[in-house]
Amino acid sequence: MRVVVLCGGESSERDVSLASGWAVTRALLERGHEVVVVDPAAAVPVLAGPLQPGDAAGEFTVGREPPSLAERDELRRRMHTALTGGPVLELLRGADTVFLALHGGWGEDGHVQALLEMAGVRFTGADSAACAAAWHKGRAQAVLGAAGLPVPERVPWRPGPGAVPSDVRRLLAAGPVVVKPAADGSSVAVHRVGSLPELTRVVAEESAGDVELLVEPFLAGREFTVAVVGGEALPVVEIELTTPMFDYAAKYRPGAVGEVCPARVDDRFADRLRESALLAHRALGFGAGAYSRTDFRCDSGGEPWCLEVNALPGLTAGSLLPCAAGGAGWTYPVLVQRLLDLAAPARADVTAG
């Protein structure tokens, strides 16, 4: 197949996406596909290709910090230009399938998927509606709670002049809380906060650009994640931390986190998590051709709570979805081929009529 790997992009997860894109490219070449690597936010969008099986593909190392807001503004401008006309759009239309290795931002909130749907382009992963439903953590939580999944209490907060909201103060009075953006990925800007002065400082640092935040109780127990590929829940992965939080630095710093798959839990508990992940996948509208990863954290009593659903989880060599696939007996190239095979026929045909 002729495959365009779309990676990079304008989000805070740009580096992660580039690393995923090159890893996917190597796997696709190994499986016998022709590949073009495109970063729609780059000054020169075509990074490589057409690459043929046997060709060498590059690698990318995730940096310690995500791009700044100023950098992201310029990246977004370039990305919009590339995806709405010109040679990049024609390249996407000429592919048999576009493999989406974009994470966060427009790549995961449904923007890119909607553009590809309107252009009649076949692509991997969830459709625009499911991505949009999962992207905003507060709204997704409401859907998951209505579906019967246990979700922690969350207080939305758009900081501005005035006192800290009473509901936020109430949560903080009961114990440490987690403060994070309502819409972002890779645990970017996630903080554990234990006091009002600390909360004020963190909010002052993270509220630039009128960012909506969520405040929720800190859960002190074990952390797990479950990937769903098509209609199949993969083995449970436990995330073993050497830091208090599974934040951006912990995810991409060697030695900061251990990933155990299958998780060392009894079968009943594992089945419960896998069933919950399937329920979350379906409740948010992920179809049979989509994949997702649902994150759970336990409270001090060992009860698991559903935190969020990721529509385009990381595909770097150290990411959690490949770890789960390994637990199921799949090699990385087999996982990538399965995701490619799941891609539904083009959502629209703009040439019809």
Topology, pairings included?
Layout lengths: L1 E5 L7 H17 L3 E5 L7 E6 L17 H15 L3 H7 L3 E4 L4 H4 L2 H9 L8 H8 L1 H10 L8 E3 L8 H9 L2 E5 L9 E3 L2 H11 L6 E5 L5 E7 L2 E2 L3 E5 L6 H5 L4 E4 L6 H17 L7 E8 L5 E7 L9 H8 L4 H11 L11
Parallel strand pairs: 1-2, 1-4
Antiparallel strand pairs: 2-3, 5-8, 6-7, 6-8, 9-10, 9-11, 9-13, 11-12, 13-14
Question: How would you characterize the overall build of this protein?
Answer:
This protein has 13 helices and 14 strands. It has about 350 residues and is of the alpha+beta class. The chain has three domains: about 1-125, 3-Layer(aba) Sandwich (Rossmann fold); about 135-150 and about 220-310, ATP-grasp fold, B domain (D-amino Acid Aminotransferase, Chain A, domain 1, 2-Layer Sandwich); about 155-215, Dna Ligase, domain 1. Strands 9, 10, 11, 12, 13 and 14 form a six-stranded antiparallel sheet that branches. A four-stranded mixed sheet has the order 3-2-1-4, sandwiched between helices. It has a four-stranded antiparallel sheet with strand order 5-8-6-7. α5 (about 110-120) runs antiparallel to α6 (about 130-135). Mean pLDDT is about 90; it is low at about 345-353.
